[in-house]
Structure formats: C-alpha cells, structure tokens
C-alpha cells in the first residue's frame, strides 16, 4: 500500500514540484537569451504543446485518438479573431467566447463520437473536422473564405514579443497543471479504466459514453484555450488553421513526445516546430522530412521521446 | 436452515427458440456455499447472467434478499449486494492492482465524477481495499501492474474486485478455470476462508474442487435442474454420473 501521508505540494511529490519549478524558471529566462524570432518560435511551441496535450487526454488516457482537435482549436481562433476585428469586442471577452465556442463544438463532436472506438472514432472525428473546415472555407461573409481574416487581437500590454511569451508561459503552466490534475483525478482514472476494458467498466456500474463525453468536452476546453492563444499569437486566421493538417500535426506532436505522457506534448511540439524551421531554411521538402522523421520514430521509439527516455532511465535504475 | 437470500421461481432464459435455462426453480439460504455443476452447455453461466442481470430472465422471477430483481439492470443489482466474477478474466491490465480496486469500489459512488480531486483513497476506501486484497491473498501486491502478475494472481484479483463492494452474495464463474493444480488449491483456500456471512454460488467444472468447498450442489443438464443434493450424495448419484460419463451400456 502506498502511504497516504506522503508530503505533497499542490498534489505533486516534492521531486515533481522541484522539477516543475526548475523547468518553469528556465523557460521564463529564455527570452533574455533568444532573438525575438526565436522567442516567437518558443511561444508557438507552448501553444501547440497545449493542443497536443489536450489530444493526449483522449488518446493516452481514454484510448481514443481524435483527428478533429485541430478543428476545435481553429474554431476558437476564428471566433476570437472575428469578435475582436469584426464585432470590435474587448480581447478578453473574445478569448472567453472563443474557448466557449470550442467547448460547444467539442461537446457536439463528443455526442456523435463517444459510442465509437478505434478506427471508427478516428474517422468520425476526422469527418467532423472536415465539416468545420468546409464551413470556414465557404461561409465567406463571416470567415473571409480562403483569404482568412486579419485582426488586432493582442491586448496592448502583451504587444511585445517577450511580454506575450511570458503570458503564454504562465497560461501554459496553469493549463498543464489543470490537465495533470484532471488525468490523475478519480474521473481521470475512470478514463484509463475505459481504455483498458469498457465491458468491465460497464459491469462495475459506470456509464461509459457519459464518461467519454465529459472527457472529450474537457479536452475541447483545453484545445480551445490553445486556439485562443494562437489567435493572439498570429493575429490572423484562415481555413488552414482548422484544416486536417492542423489536427494531424497535433496528433504527431503528441506521438513524438509520447502517448500518455502528457508533458511529452511540449517536447514533441518543440521537436517538430524546431525541425520544421531548421529544415525549411534549407529545402522546401519539409513534409517529406517530417514523414521520414515519423517513420524513424515509429521504428526506434514508438513510445515517443519522453516514453523512450523513461524506459532507458528505469532500465538503468533496475540494473545493478 | 436460515431464511432464503435467493429464490428463483420458474426462471427461463430463451435466445429465440433455444431455451438455455428452462424453468429453473432454486432456493439458496443465507450464508450457504452452493455449487452449480453440469456439463458444457447445461446453462450454468446463463443462469448466472439471469441472477446478476446481464441477461434478465425471459420469464420467471428472481427474488434477492426480499426484493424482486427480475427486471433490474446489473448495476442496480450490484447496489443491492450481488457481485460476480467472470469466467474469462476481465481486468484493467495496464493499471495497478490498487487502481483496479479503486475503480471497482467507486463504480457506484458519485466520487467517480470528481474532475480535479485528489487521486488517493480516503481512509474508509483504503480499509475496504486492504481487507478485500487480504481476503484474496494478494495484499502485498497492491502496487503491481496487473499485466505483470501471473494468471493465478489475476484470478485472485478478480475475486478481490468482486469482494471490495462488500457484497451479500458472491457469484463465482469458474474461478479456477485454466489454473495449475497449485494455483487451484490457492483459489480453493481463498474461497474457503471467505466471510461466512457472504452467500457464495460457484460454477465449477472440476468436481473435486467444487465438492470440497460447498454445502450443497445443484447439477444442471440441458437448462434444467437435474439433481439437488449435498456433496456426499452427488458423487454416487446415478443421474449425475450419467450426464458426466454417458449412459452405461448394457452388455
């Protein structure tokens, strides 16, 4: 039995809390040593890390990989840009509306998808995402169609590159903590139970579709937060933000970091975004390089970067 | 004999034209250890499903502890104190034993919806999990991941999961299926030392194991009750020998 009286800081073990604090401090000091372009990249990594984490809640803990999260993310971006540029709403209110819109979309996706699993879940979420993409592309009066929409989303105090980075970092820290608490909670345990055996969960008295619905909707809230931050980051939105490629990129980041590792999402996002920027400065064949990278990851580290590191360390710890 | 805890009256479970259980009436007194034996296809597991609610009876009545549960879904029956194990091991393989027990314990409680709450069990929960694991003789294995345990231990965990909800009646569906002789005697030991207040109904193919554990035996054949007798009589019963070994041929 684990002793219940282990000393905890906000639910974290002392070691976990120290590691988290150290990473946060290093991340907060980054803008002092980086060029403003690099700070922009770091901001993007944090935003996509949140998106990848929200996908990991479902994929890693409930065993349901969604290809519709890019669309949920993008809906939030669209709403935030539209509300600030066309409806001239205050940015703060627009952010809340964006997250709310993403949550509603996620809840609708969830209603349709929670009774499926495996490849059917994948395809259903993919199709739902395509519908959102189609709407954004064709509803020209509102979305600007293929040209997209430009907006001045960032509040005045966050215009500076470093100030915005710090704001996103603070947000990412809070959101990551919330997601971590969520997957560790009694409810999170029920999602892991569903991943392992739906039939057993049902016989123990759990309403499996209801749990998946709640899990999907909560995951949608976090994807919506990422989308709202992206609106502030980019000040621009176009159909490519809600396209399938966005969902796939989120899923790939999660896989690269390690499915079910949660924080691996940031490592995966960093790996892919940095690689993309390095490769793109040499060749236009970035997608080919991305494809090859994934084949290599699948062969040599199918458990992802963090998963692989954990496996190596635990093997070392066990060895005499 | 004390008052009955389970009474089946004329229970039939039909799958289209096939009557897997055909007009079974059965009374189990409180605290009894009862075995249901019979050859393959006799309707033993279907009868279990009718009692636990996975396949409610097509006709007939199931009375449990004074309540008519014939129409209730499985989780409502679980709430009344009926708990069961499965013939085929069905656990959460990537979770620890402790987490398996937590899921079993919280299935009927509102705490399962706590979205950001602490993961640890409270004192009452820890005590119940501890005593269930102890009864199943795997108390020292709480932190092990289930897929790393032996098959025998997984069968023990199956029983622990059924016990943690503190049932009044426990249905064990072939608890020793597929186990080695030493693992079988371990399971037998676990069943023998269960709290005598719990009524236990056991399906088992292995006559020696079943007869050594119970006070009373029901032998089923082709969906019907063939014989009801204490274990001493059942071995010598001509009808039971016939369904198990075939009709003796007259030379």
Automatic annotation (TrEMBL), chain A:
Keyword vocabulary terms for this entry: Cell membrane, Membrane, Transmembrane, Transmembrane helix
Record GO terms (molecular function): branched-chain amino acid transmembrane transporter activity
Intracellular or extracellular location(s): Cell membrane
Membrane topology field: Multi-pass membrane protein
InterPro entries: ABC_transp_permease (IPR001851), LivM-like (IPR043428)
A Pfam family assignment: BPD_transp_2
Domain of life assignment: Bacteria
GO cellular component term, pick one: plasma membrane
TM stretches of this protein: 12-33, 39-59, 66-85, 91-112, 119-140, 163-183, 204-231, 251-275, 287-306
Name of the protein this chain belongs to: High-affinity branched-chain amino acid transport system permease protein LivH
Automatic annotation (TrEMBL), chain B:
UniProt xrefs under SUPFAM superfamilies: P-loop containing nucleoside triphosphate hydrolases
Family annotation (SMART domains): AAA
Keyword Transport: yes
Signal sequence bounds: none
Residue intervals passing through the bilayer: none
Class of the enzyme per the UniProt entry, highest EC level: hydrolase
E.C. number(s) listed in UniProt: 3.6.3.-
Domain ABC transporter: 6-247
GO BP annotations listed: D-alanine transmembrane transport; L-alanine transport; L-isoleucine import across plasma membrane; L-valine import across plasma membrane
Keywords associated with the record: ATP-binding, Hydrolase, Nucleotide-binding, Transport
GO CC field: plasma membrane
Any one GO molecular-function label of the UniProt entry: L-phenylalanine transmembrane transporter activity
Function: Involved in beta-(1-->2)glucan export. Transmembrane domains (TMD) form a pore in the inner membrane and the ATP-binding domain (NBD) is responsible for energy generation.
Entry protein name: Lipopolysaccharide export system ATP-binding protein LptB
Species lineage: Bacteria, Pseudomonadati, Pseudomonadota, Alphaproteobacteria, Hyphomicrobiales
């Amino acid at each position: 039995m684990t002793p219940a009286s282990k000393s905890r800081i906000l639910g974290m073990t002392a070691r976990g809390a120290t590691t988290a604090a150290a990473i946060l401090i290093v991340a907060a000091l980054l803008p002092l040593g980086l060029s403003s372009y690099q700070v922009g990249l770091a901001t993007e990594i944090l935003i996509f890390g949140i998106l990848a984490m929200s996908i990991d809640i479902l994929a890693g803990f409930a065993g349901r990989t969604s290809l519709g999260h890019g669309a949920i993310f993008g809906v939030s971006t669209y709403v935030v840009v539209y509300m600030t540029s066309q409806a001239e709403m205050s940015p703060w209110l627009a952010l809340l509306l964006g997250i709310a819109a993403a949550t509603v979309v996620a809840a609708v996706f969830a209603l349709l998808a929670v009774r499926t699993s495996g490849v059917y879940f994948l395809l259903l979420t993919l199709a739902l995402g395509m519908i959102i993409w189609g709407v954004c592309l064709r509803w020209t009066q509102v979305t600007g169609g293929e040209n997209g929409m430009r907006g001045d989303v960032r509040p005045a105090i966050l215009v500076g590159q470093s100030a915005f980075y710090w704001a996103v970092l603070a947000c990412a820290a809070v959101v990551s903590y919330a997601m971590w608490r969520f997957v560790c909670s009694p409810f999170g345990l029920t999602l892991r139970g569903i991943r392992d055996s739906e039939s057993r969960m049902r016989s123990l008295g759990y309403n499996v579709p209801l749990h998946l619905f709640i899990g999907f909707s909560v995951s949608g809230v976090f994807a919506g937060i990422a989308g709202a931050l992206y609106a502030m980051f980019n000040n621009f939105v176009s159909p490519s933000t809600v396209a399938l490629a966005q969902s796939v990129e989120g899923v790939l980041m999660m896989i690269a970091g390690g499915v079910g590792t949660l924080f691996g999402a940031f490592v995966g996002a960093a790996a892919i975004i940095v690689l993309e920027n390095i490769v793109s400065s040499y060749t236009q064949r970035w997608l080919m390089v991305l494809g090859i990278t994934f084949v290599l990851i699948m062969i040599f580290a199918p458990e992802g970067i963090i998963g692989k590191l954990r496996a190596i360390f635990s093997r070392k710890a066990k060895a005499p | 004999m004390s008052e009955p805890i389970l009474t089946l009256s004329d229970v039939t479970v039909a799958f289209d034209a096939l009557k897997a259980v055909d007009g079974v009436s059965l009374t189990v007194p409180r605290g009894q250890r009862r075995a249901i034996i019979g050859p393959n296809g006799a309707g033993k597991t279907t009868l279990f499903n009718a009692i636990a609610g996975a396949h409610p009876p097509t006709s007939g009545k199931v009375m449990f502890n004074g309540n008519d549960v014939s129409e209730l879904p499985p989780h409502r029956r679980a709430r009344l104190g009926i708990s069961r194990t499965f013939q085929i091991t069905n656990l959460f393989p990537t979770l620890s034993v402790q987490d398996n027990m937590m899921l079993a314990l919280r299935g009927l409680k509102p705490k399962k919806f706590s979205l950001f709450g602490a993961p640890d069990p409270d004192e009452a929960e820890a005590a119940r999990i501890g005593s269930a694991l102890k009864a199943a003789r795997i108390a020292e294995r709480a932190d092990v991941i289930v897929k790393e345990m032996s098959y025998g231990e997984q069968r023990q965990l199956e029983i622990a999961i059924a016990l943690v909800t503190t049932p009044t009646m426990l249905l064990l569906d072939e608890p020793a299926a597929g186990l080695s002789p030493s693992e079988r005697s371990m399971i037998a030991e676990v069943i023998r030392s269960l709290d005598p207040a719990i009524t236990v109904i056991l399906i088992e193919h292995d006559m020696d194991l079943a007869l050594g554990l119970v006070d009373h035996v029901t032998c089923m054949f082709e969906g019907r009750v063939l014989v009801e007798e204490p274990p001493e009589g059942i071995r010598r019963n001509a009808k039971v020998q016939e369904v198990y070994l075939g009709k003796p041929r007259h030379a």
